[in-house]
Amino acid sequence: MNENFLKNISFQILSGLNYLHENNIIHRDIKLENILYDIKNKIAKIGDFGLSRQFDYDLSAQYTDVGTYPYKPPELLLGLNHYTSSLDIWSTGCVLVEICTGAHLFGQDNALGVMSLIYKIFGSFNDDILPGFKKFPSYRIFESLPKTQGIGLVNYVKKNQKFKFVNEDFYNLIEKMLCIDPTKRISAKECLAHKWFLNKN
């Protein structure tokens, strides 16, 4: 494991995701178990399209319970039913951090547990972090969570990464991918153009 490996596998995953999104497909279950990697040929592929849908599919309330809890973005945990391909970006950001640290970023199997870990890293939600968050359908489920400032995503990754490198460009990328506000989350296409990949080997 080194930065070049992380960069190459990240670029391949994001290229696959960009291809899906450009063809109007949301995967809806990006997780490490669904990333297939050929060690010999150093090729990564996205697998398991059982939950994938086209953008114009009827993404009504009955389809909000998608994905796997440690990879679910905040808007899904809060019950939003008008989600976009940005949910795949959040999940992929979780995967990249997991490759870097060797552990789930939000390793819980229920909404309250995942949100408590999100709060520990990003701090309690407010209108600056997620505008109108108190209007989300499932907001009240999380009112019992303790108020916190959060330790910060970059601080968490630097403390827990399994191999030593300091590349502020990588940290900048995952912060953009794991943006709490889905409307401000970076797209797959924008990820591929990010400066971290400029010197890809």
Task: Give the topology.
Layout (H helix, E strand, L loop, with lengths): L2 H20 L2 E2 L8 E4 L4 E4 L6 E2 L19 H4 L8 H16 L9 H12 L30 H8 L7 H10 L10 H5 L9
Antiparallel strand pairs: 1-4, 2-3
Helix pairs in contact: 1-3
Question: Would you kindly provide a written description of the structure presented here, covering whatever features stand out?
Answer:
- It is a single chain.
- The relative contact order is 0.17.
- This protein has a two-stranded antiparallel ribbon. A two-stranded antiparallel ribbon has the order 2-3.
- The protein has helices at 3-22, 74-77, 86-101, 111-122, 153-160, 168-177, 188-192; strands at 25-26, 35-38, 43-46, 53-54.
- The protein has 201 residues and is mainly alpha-helical.
- The mean pLDDT is 90.
Task: Write a brief caption for the model.
This protein is mainly alpha-helical and 201 residues long. The protein has helices spanning 3-22, 74-77, 86-101, 111-122, 153-160, 168-177, 188-192, and strands spanning 25-26, 35-38, 43-46, 53-54.
Features:
single chain; 7 helices; 6% strand; two-stranded antiparallel sheet; mainly alpha; 201 residues
Rg, Cα atoms, Å: 16 Å
User: How is the biggest beta sheet arranged?
Assistant: 2 strands, antiparallel
Beta-strand content = 5-15%
Average of pLDDT: 90
Structural class: mainly alpha
User: How many helical elements?
Assistant: 7
Total count of strands: 4
Distance between the termini: 14 Å
Low-confidence stretches: none
Listing every helix as H and every strand as E from the N terminus to the C terminus, the arrangement reads HEEEEHHHHHH
